[in-house]
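Give me the fold.
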Amino acid sequence: MSNPVKIAAVQPALRLGAVEENLVRLEGLIRDAVREHSPAIVTVPEAASSPNVYSKLMHGVARPIDGAPMQLYRQLARELDVVVGGGFLARRGNHVYGTYVLAEPDGRVHLHDKDIPTMWEHNYYTGGADPGRSTLAALDGAPIGIANGWEWARMGTARRLRGQVQLLLGGMCWPSYPENWRGPFAALASRERALQRQHARELPRQMARLIGAPVVMPSHVGPVDFETPLVPGLAWRTTMLGETQIVERDGTVLARLTQEDGEAHVAATVHLADPRPADPLGPMFWIPPLSVTTRAAWTATNTHGAIKYRAMRTLHRHPWQSWPGGDLPDEIGPGEPLDQQQATTADTRRPPMDIAHIEQTPIVKAMMGRLLKVHQFIYERSSGRVGHKALGVPCLLLRTTGARTGQLRTNSLIYGRDGDSYVVVASASGAPKAPGWYHNLRAKPSAEIQIGTGTQSATASVVTQRDPDYDRLWKLMNDVNLNRYNAYQEVAGRPIPIVKLTPVG
């Protein structure tokens, strides 16, 4: 026996960072969908207050968990007598999460925090740990699942929901590869865009068959311009993939909006019943076979974003940290006003820690090491076309001969210019021991340096604190590295030497 339920899904075209403007737009789209379709449930995507992309504007997108987005969803659910689902970046306690809200007409609220931020999203929020399952009173207590963004693309999501839910709700925010890149990267980006459109088109059907339940996946659509992570100054202009779909548990697509359909809404009737998975679970991490390019970008931007989020939070530099902090439970009962849940109680703050201490904590040190390895890998594999200023500061590749092994060693280092020479600092981010490349140069001063696409031989000369030129060069390099070297010197417990690399020939 099955229970028919009519559900509407909204595919909005929203403006980056314009939270209040986007909420007004969402309200109009939700009201219009209810007027046209008379559904029991209407859903909008994850991150419906602003597209989740890499931009300085994203630092102002988060709102308190009981803030304007939550109030809008709850108000519309009560007024329109429907279940309203939608996402936003929510401050919950001492962190921001990618939260999805299901608000019921009787005042019940069900919350789910995305488990792993996707790529650059790590810059703006952290991952949650709830199971992403609840029950809807409006559907007579039917068990439902919630998935945000690339949770839809992971086999782990199917594993935790398989056989457990009669309906999967949530949403997607999927910006594609750049459309503005030229040269050798244009063909790569075009190929990746086509592949990602295919993945977005197939994912709802795949997930429905894996968990054995109908799915509703509203998605963002429309053009979006942002910045390229790790490559300052390079614009990323693309289009949200769209692919809003309502799919039965056997994989039949009941309603669909493509990228070309633009902003719109659709509705269809699904049938809730005991889950009946049609496809087996696989051992892989991803459901679609993501390309090597996407997997590499995922790893690099995850690491970069996580480090930045943690550092900014420790230094108390996120704008949301100036607000009172607090939280709401994942399940709020019927008729409970949010102000009774004390979502805006005072936050307990720790004194800020300086960046040098942060970078020497084990977890940040490990993540920094991964990030630098990824940066060096990209620098080398692109023959210097990418990587020279990918970390926001000028970087060269230094190739030395191992003092003990005699093997070639390569390191990516921040540099400054002093006449014809290149200047680097043996700081090791404030570690108590000098880096290996410094000892290599002390044993054999001959080296090779690569700046961008150009490579040349060089001879190293060490400048210590006893040298009259040290203070001038230290100031030069400290300015290049945004005052970090002063912080490193305070925690290193050793004099940090400077090395001049002078080209030969």
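Residues 344-354 have pLDDT under 50 and may be disordered.
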